[in-house]
Amino acid sequence: MRLTPFDDYPFHQAPTPFATVATSDAHYNDGYFCAFYAPGWYFFTGLHPNVNVMDGWASVAHANRQTAIRASRALHPRYEDLQVGPVRFEILEPMRRLRLVAGENTAGIAFDVVLEAQSPPFVEDRYQHFKYGAVVNDLVRYTQICRATGHATVDGERIAVERWHAMRDHSWGVRSSMAVPTGIRGIERDDDPAARRALRLWVPFEVEDHCGFFNTHENSAGRPLDFEGRLDYADGRSVRLTAVRHALEYLPGTRRVAGGTLELDGEDGVTRRYVLELAGTPADVQGGGYYGGWRDGGSAGLWRGAEHLEFDSYGAMPGAGESGPPHLPPARRLGPTEHPMRMTGPGGATGMAHFEHTISGAYPRYGFGAK
To answer: Structure pTM?
Structure first.
């Protein structure tokens, strides 16, 4: 076993060094997802250390096109180095300031920005998912609303990033979508079909005097399966959220959200209404390597050698078919899930939301049948 400088701190949670995960499950993952955005531009990036793999990516969605670079390397022995290929993260102040760097690369995407937290982190409920008698997902995540400052370059065009809206999350645990397929099969599912997720909304946002976050899932009948959220005000007040009602609008012939309204109920008895409007090209996470987005057809966490680099650039024009990395067969493309939205809140307060939205299978309320 190899020690790292982190092992000098008395915070071990298992009888292994920090560089050695206390499980042999290859689906264990500890990583970041970050985005910064302004009308017309959406950048996102992340790092995913795994059992002995570190993956990273940087991607931009702009003018109906998405470009992404993906990198992978051996985690050991450079365990404490948060860099893979041209993508580098620097924790300047834990949970306050995070530097994101994408150095010059063949994809033509580069940036150097610092995310500054605008609110305390929101620790989401632990997610445990059982399938055929096995735990296939077991993780926790915290989410934070930020502002980004620095610069970016896309195909030679330099863009000043001056307090753009931004968000970050950090999650760790077992994720079935990472590494090799679980291979778990059976004849009887443990979960009730009525409790299976059809709609997911995961939304960090900021409008003038307050930040907010909520996360919910609904079944195909539109019944909420879970909900959590909070508002944080500039004067220090916090309000726990208890429910959301949504009326979403979609681009014709697609599952892409064009806008809509949200009503958020607070524990203080106040219902706050927000209006959304799509503010640019939404992005698909398969460009970052999720859900089989790598050129070998695999996901993050697979061994691809000591050093590996690849990139894609493809059209993201809305249409009847889903956009995605061109090497993925159309039937496997998930299409955009991350939508930069203009947001108008109570009293006309303006800002932006990071609107993560997926529909899996049928959701009749908005006219979607099973795919």
So the answer is: 0.95
